[in-house]
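Onboarding guide, step 5: your first structure request.
Type a short instruction followed by the sequence, for example:

Predict the 3D structure of this protein.
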Amino acid sequence: MVGSARAAGARAVVREVTAGAGTLLVGLEVTGTPAAREAGGAAERWQVLTLRDGRIVDIRGFADRAAAAGHAGVPA
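The system replies with C-alpha coordinates like these:
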Protein backbone atom coordinates (compact mmCIF):
# COMPACT_ATOMS: atom_id res chain seq x y z
CA MET A 1 0.00 0.00 0.00
CA VAL A 2 2.84 2.41 0.81
CA GLY A 3 4.35 1.85 -2.63
CA SER A 4 1.07 2.67 -4.35
CA ALA A 5 0.63 5.86 -2.29
CA ARG A 6 4.17 6.92 -3.15
CA ALA A 7 3.61 6.11 -6.82
CA ALA A 8 0.47 8.26 -6.71
CA GLY A 9 2.51 11.22 -5.42
CA ALA A 10 1.90 11.06 -1.66
CA ARG A 11 4.81 12.26 0.46
CA ALA A 12 5.26 12.71 4.21
CA VAL A 13 7.73 14.63 6.32
CA VAL A 14 8.15 13.80 10.00
CA ARG A 15 7.52 16.96 12.06
CA GLU A 16 7.38 15.49 15.58
CA VAL A 17 8.34 12.37 17.49
CA THR A 18 7.31 12.13 21.16
CA ALA A 19 8.12 9.07 23.25
CA GLY A 20 5.60 7.57 25.63
CA ALA A 21 5.67 4.43 27.75
CA GLY A 22 6.05 1.81 25.03
CA THR A 23 4.80 4.17 22.32
CA LEU A 24 5.97 6.78 19.87
CA LEU A 25 3.72 9.60 18.72
CA VAL A 26 4.74 10.62 15.19
CA GLY A 27 3.45 13.83 13.60
CA LEU A 28 3.54 13.95 9.81
CA GLU A 29 3.01 16.65 7.21
CA VAL A 30 1.48 14.88 4.21
CA THR A 31 1.33 16.22 0.65
CA GLY A 32 0.07 14.76 -2.61
CA THR A 33 -3.15 13.25 -1.25
CA PRO A 34 -6.76 14.33 -1.75
CA ALA A 35 -6.95 15.41 1.92
CA ALA A 36 -3.79 17.47 1.54
CA ARG A 37 -5.11 19.16 -1.58
CA GLU A 38 -8.39 19.97 0.21
CA ALA A 39 -6.37 21.50 3.08
CA GLY A 40 -4.47 23.78 0.70
CA GLY A 41 -1.52 21.55 -0.12
CA ALA A 42 -0.54 19.81 3.11
CA ALA A 43 -2.38 17.92 5.84
CA GLU A 44 -1.28 16.94 9.34
CA ARG A 45 -1.57 13.27 10.18
CA TRP A 46 -0.57 11.46 13.35
CA GLN A 47 0.55 7.91 13.98
CA VAL A 48 1.05 6.02 17.22
CA LEU A 49 3.62 3.25 17.05
CA THR A 50 3.39 0.67 19.84
CA LEU A 51 6.67 -0.99 20.78
CA ARG A 52 7.38 -4.33 22.40
CA ASP A 53 10.87 -5.71 22.96
CA GLY A 54 12.32 -2.93 20.81
CA ARG A 55 10.09 -3.72 17.83
CA ILE A 56 7.07 -2.00 16.37
CA VAL A 57 4.06 -4.25 16.92
CA ASP A 58 1.24 -1.87 15.95
CA ILE A 59 0.72 1.38 14.03
CA ARG A 60 -2.49 3.40 14.33
CA GLY A 61 -3.35 6.49 12.30
CA PHE A 62 -5.15 9.58 13.60
CA ALA A 63 -6.37 12.79 11.98
CA ASP A 64 -5.73 14.95 15.06
CA ARG A 65 -2.96 15.19 17.63
CA ALA A 66 -5.19 15.14 20.72
CA ALA A 67 -6.66 11.73 19.86
CA ALA A 68 -3.24 10.35 18.96
CA ALA A 69 -1.66 11.72 22.13
CA GLY A 70 -4.42 10.16 24.22
CA HIS A 71 -3.83 6.79 22.60
CA ALA A 72 -0.05 7.12 23.01
CA GLY A 73 -0.32 8.22 26.64
CA VAL A 74 1.60 11.47 26.10
CA PRO A 75 0.57 15.06 26.88
CA ALA A 76 -1.72 16.67 24.34
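Each response can be followed by summary notes, for example: The longest strand covers residues 43-52.
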